[in-house]
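Could you help me review a protein record that somebody else here produced? Here is the record exactly as it was handed to me:
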Amino acid sequence: MCEAQSFWERHELKFYRYGHIYANIYGQVIIDYVPQRPMRAPLKSLLIAYSHVLSLLLIVVLPGYFGYNYRELTATDDRRMQLVLYVGFANTLIKYATVIVTYMANTFHFEAINQHCSLQRAHLQAAFAASCRGPSRPKRSFELFMYLKFGLINIMMVVQVCGILAVAGIDTDSNGSSRLRIQFAIYSFVLWNYTENMADYFYYMNSSVLMYFRLLHVQLRAELGQLRRLDLYAHPHPLRRGMLMLCCSRLCDRIGVLRERFAAIHALYVDSFRMHQLQLLGLMLTTLINNLTNLFTIFNLLATSSRAIASFPVVVSGVYALGFYLDTYLVSLVSEYIKVERTRLALTIRQFSESPALQPPSLNQELEQFSLLLMHSRQPMLCGLVHLDRRLIYLISVTAFSYFITLVQFDIYLRRAS
C-alpha cells in the first residue's frame, strides 16, 4: 500500500496551476506544468497574442525609451557612482539579450516544448504512479528540491523589490534622474522574472528527470533482488525448474519495460536541454554579471556611504547576490545528481551479470541492450560545449571575483583622480 500523501502531493496541482497563471502574466503561455485538458482555442489565441505584445514591449518599446534617455539615466556628478550605474546598465543589457533569446526560442519551439516536454513528463508521471511501491525517498528528495527553489525564487523577488525601494531612498538627484532610475530598476526586475519563468520550468523538468531515474533505479534494484532469489541449480526437479524459468521470463519482460522507460526519461532530459540551451547560456552570463554587479555595489556602498545610510542597501544587495548564486547552484546540482544516478544505474545493470541465477539467453540479451543504451546515452551539454555541473559554478565564481577586482581598481583610480 502507498504511504500517506505528503503536503506536496496533496497540493501539487495547486502549485502548478498557480505557477501556470503566473507564467501567463509574464507572457509565458508556453509553460504548462500539468497538461490535463487542451486550452480553448479563443483563450489560447488571446494569451499568445498577449505574450507577443508584452515581449515586443520589453524588447522594442521600453529599450527605445531608456536608450533615448541614456544620458539622463547615467547622469551624476559623482564619477564613482557613475561607474556603479554603468555596471548596472551592463547587467540589465545581459538580461535584455537573454529575454530576446528566450522569446525567439519560445516562438520557434512552442509546440515542441508542449509535446516533447510537458506531455512526455506527464506520461512518465502516470507510468510511475501506476506502480506505487517501494521507498518514497526519491519523491521526498524531489519535493525538497522544489521547496528550496520555490522559497528561493520568492525570497529573491522580495529582495529585488526591497532593492528598488533602496534605490529610491539613496538616489536624491533633483533633475528627474531618480525617477528614471527607479523605472529602469523596475524594468530590470521584469526582465529577470521573464527569463526566470523558463529557468524554473527547465529546473522542474530536470528535477522530474532526477526523480524518475531514482524511481527507475529503485525498481531495477527490486528486480535484481528477485533474480538473486532464483537459484536454478538448487532445485533440479523439472517442475520447479519450469516455474523458475517462467519467473525469469517475466523478469525479462520487466527489464524490457524498464529499459524502454529509461529511454523515455533520457529523451525528456535531452529534449529539455536542447530546447533551453541558449537560454541557459544566457542565464549563466546573467548570473556572472549579477554576481559582479552585486559585489561591486556592496563594495561601493561600504566605501562611499556612512554605516547608517548604507546598511539597508548593503544587506539587500548581499542577500540578492547569495540568492542568485544559490539558484544557479541548485540548477547545476540537479544535473550533477542526474549524472551520478546514471552511473549508479550502470553499476546495477553490471550486477545482474554477476548473479548466479542468470541463465536464460533472453534475459542476457535484454540486459546487454540495456547496457548498450546506457553506454550510448551521453550527458547533454550547453550548445555542445559546456557541461552544466558544479565545475561551471566554480568557474563563474572565479571569473566574477576577477571582474570584481578589476572594478575595484577602477574605483580606486577614480577616487584618487577626484
Observations:
- Residues 238-304 form the longest helix (67 residues).
- The radius of gyration is 26 Å.
- The chain has a mean pLDDT of 79.
- Residues 81-417 form one domain.
